[in-house]
Each structure stands twice: as structure tokens, then as C-alpha cells.
Amino acid sequence: MTIRTKRPVSPASARSANRVKTVPVALSALTGLLGLPALPAAAQAAPALAWRACPSGQGPAEMECAAIEVPVDWSAPGKATITLDLARLPATEPSLRLGSVLVVPDGGPGIQGVLSPAPESFTTLRRRFDVVGYNPRTSAAGRYLPPSCGVPGLPLNDPRDRAAYEAQAAGLERLVERCRQDDTTGLADHLDSDSVARDMEAIRTALGQDRLTMLAFSYGGVPAAAYARLYPGHVRAVVFDSTPDPTVGWRGMERAQLRATEAAFKRFTTWCAGDDACALRGRNVRTLWRALVKSTGRRPVTYASARLGEIRLTDVHLKALARVVLPVPEKAPEFADALLKASKGDFAWFGEQVLGISASWSSPGAAATRCPDGLVGLGYEALVSDRRYSERISRDFGGGVGTGLEALACSGWRHRPVNPPRPLPAGLPPVLGLGGDRDFPVTDLLVSRIPRSVTVRYDGPVHVVYLRAKDPCVTGYADRYLTELTLPRAGTLCPPR
């Protein structure tokens, strides 16, 4: 039986249901849910889910689907609601079944995006658990929000003074306010990770679980951490896979992130020195990189795109792209070619990439999804201070992502954070972290804050290693922990097969 509530919100029409895009990294601020009770009454009373066969072609034949209605605003549970879709892969040995594992996705679809493409990843886990995925409200929002929430954002120029910062922030704020004014559902004001965590509590009670077992991927670890903060007594086990540390925000993670970027750059230069596929073979790559950073820092390069607009590229943009691209080996030939062209004055690749990121990250819907979590500092003073802090850590890559473009993307969201960085409560059970080369440092920061917890490192540049590494070492440790609550030794490393 589907949960009944007083007034469901009708989804937007097919013509206007622009999907709200989420981004792989965090943004910042919003208001609305501060001071709510730790255990909302609506979640406590949630009835059981009605599982049924999924629509043809949606996933494996054994996958089952259900839906749950949750309040748009958890402080007003008797008012408007939205529907979240769920799917489960049932336990294959029912007599040994321990319960359900909730897969917390990074903001993308929980059914098609997690369970359908990789059911084999859960083969061992399914001996003892139902594996349940769902579409969080940050993904389902595209069904409800108006078109103005899904429009592209503005080019994220690097402001060189307060006036330029405020002018750009005002333009972004106008987009955000248009989205909020057009939104008759109120959902745009309730896409923060605390709201997602309260939805997870409703799912827990609907599943009939005394405590929740979670497998959280990428940014999905932020609402999983929010859940642990709101409902510490309802946590059985958590795997944080490639998750940022929401207890400190991006500045608090900057040193660890930049160490990972420097390591990725070293791998890139080593590859360039020995592979003919590198357009820069025979060149001193670090010297070339520093020259580009220095020249664009002094004299920005204007790039215009008929499709995406115009931007003034600076060193901040180059650093941001390097931090996104370097950890992905498949992008190495493309990045090397772009660097060679830039050294000759052709910055088209950098311009197109930055404009595309700008359109996605600063879209009103994306801002509504991530800015409420407060992971970046807001205001011109914070931007300058955070950037200087980052550049002191790394002259080659500091100031690029969380302390650069992400902070700019949230500059138009002028509301207090709902889920600001703060410590997790004492008394949580030990958790397990997983991370490849690019994510291990920041995931380990989070996991190390929970006593007796352990992070396993996968020795490869893979994001979300449980699903994508296809490595029994990684899945073996995770499955054993989720099943038996047994953690590996500290310092455990899984080498690629």
C-alpha cells in the first residue's frame, strides 16, 4: 500500500518537466528546516511498501518496484507531498535474510542509475539482504519543478574585485528567485540533504527496519551523514564510497584534495614522458602548465561560444579543469592536446569546458540541490580568503574547485545553509570507507572522525569503487562489513587485478 497523504503535488507536464541536474561536487546555502524534531511523526507512522514487478525493460527480471509519498516540507508533513520511486533486488537466500541495504545514490536516479546497470555487483550482498535503491528528491525534482528551475546558469567569470563579484552574484540570484517564484510546489526550497535524510527515515520505517544499513555512493554520502546526525540510534552500518567530508566543508578538505591532484598530475607527466599518445611528449609538462597558469592569471583570455556565451578564462578556470580531469586517465590524451593548443594561444577546449560546467553548476535547480548544504563559503571575503588558503597549499592547482568555481556557482543563493558542516554525534557505530586514488583522502577524512572506523584504499583512479572497480577485494570487504559488521585492518589496500 502506497503512503497516503493529504495533498500530493502534481508532477509538471511532460513539456515542462525539465530535469534538475545534479553535479559531482558540492555547492552551498538555503533555509527552512532548522529546528525540526529529530523523529518526524510522519516518518514514524509510514506503512509498509507495496512491491510489484517493475515495468518491462526497466531492470533485471527479478527487480521489484514501489513508491512512497513524502512531505515536500518535513516541518509541515500534513501538506503537499511528492512521490519517490524505489526498486529492490530481493535476497536470493530468504532463509538467511538479515534485512535491507539502502543504496544512497549521488543524486541521480536510484533505480536506473544504481541497480539496473550493475546487479552483478550485489550478488554476494543479496544472499543476506534485499538491496533497495531509490530516486531521491533531488532527482525526482525534475518531475515537479517549473522550466525556470532547469535553465542553464551564467558563465562563472572569475571576479577580480568586489563589484564584479556582486554583479555576477546578483545575476545568479535573479535566476534562483525566478525559479522559487515559479515553483508552486515549494520543493525548490527543500532539496537539501537534511530533507533527503528525512526521506530516508520514512523509507526505513516503510521497510520495517529497526536500524538502517546504508551503501552511500559519492555525494550520496552527504545525506547519509545527515541521516547519522539526525537519527544516530537508527544507524546499523554505513559504507561511504568516494564521499566528501560534509563535517568540514570544502576548505577543510582542500589539503587532502590537492594532495590527490598533485599525485594525479605526477601520473600524467610520467605517462606523457613515455607514451606517443601524449601530444606533449618531450616537453617539460610542469613548466608548460605553470606558464599557462601565470599568463592567464595576469591576462585573462576571452572565449566566446555561440551556444554557451562568453567567458574570461583565468588561472582559476585552468586549475579547476585540471582538478576535474587529471584523476581520469581516459581524459589524459584530450587534456594533453588541449594544453598544447593553449600554449599556442588556442583555449577553445578550456572555454567550452568551463562554459559547460558553468551552465550546469549554476543552474537554479543545481543550486537548490547543493547550495543548502553549505559546503562552500559565501561572499567576496570568503572567496578571497579561501582561495588564498588553497593557493598556499598548492601554487599549481590551489583555488580551483570548491574554493573557486563552486563558491561562485553558489554566490546567487543568498540563504542560510540548512545542513551546514558540523561534527557528527558521538556514539555512532563504526563505518567503512572506500576510495580510489582521487577520493581516498577526502573519504578518509570523514571516516576517521567516527571512532574505530576504517577506510579501504583502492589503488586506482576509480570513482565509486564498489560499482566500478569490479574488484572482489573491494566488494568483499564491504559485503563482509555490511553482513557481519566486521571491519578490515587499518591501512588495508586493494591493488587492481
From TrEMBL:
Signal peptide per UniProt: 1-45
Gene3D superfamilies for the chain: alpha/beta hydrolase (3.40.50.1820)
Superkingdom of source: Bacteria
Organism: Microtetraspora malaysiensis
Protein name: Alpha/beta fold hydrolase
GO molecular function: hydrolase activity
Organism classification: Bacteria, Bacillati, Actinomycetota, Actinomycetes, Streptosporangiales
Keywords: Hydrolase, Signal
Domain Peptidase S33 tripeptidyl aminopeptidase-like C-terminal span(s) in chain numbering: 407-494
Domain AB hydrolase-1: 103-291
One Pfam family this sequence matches: Abhydrolase_4
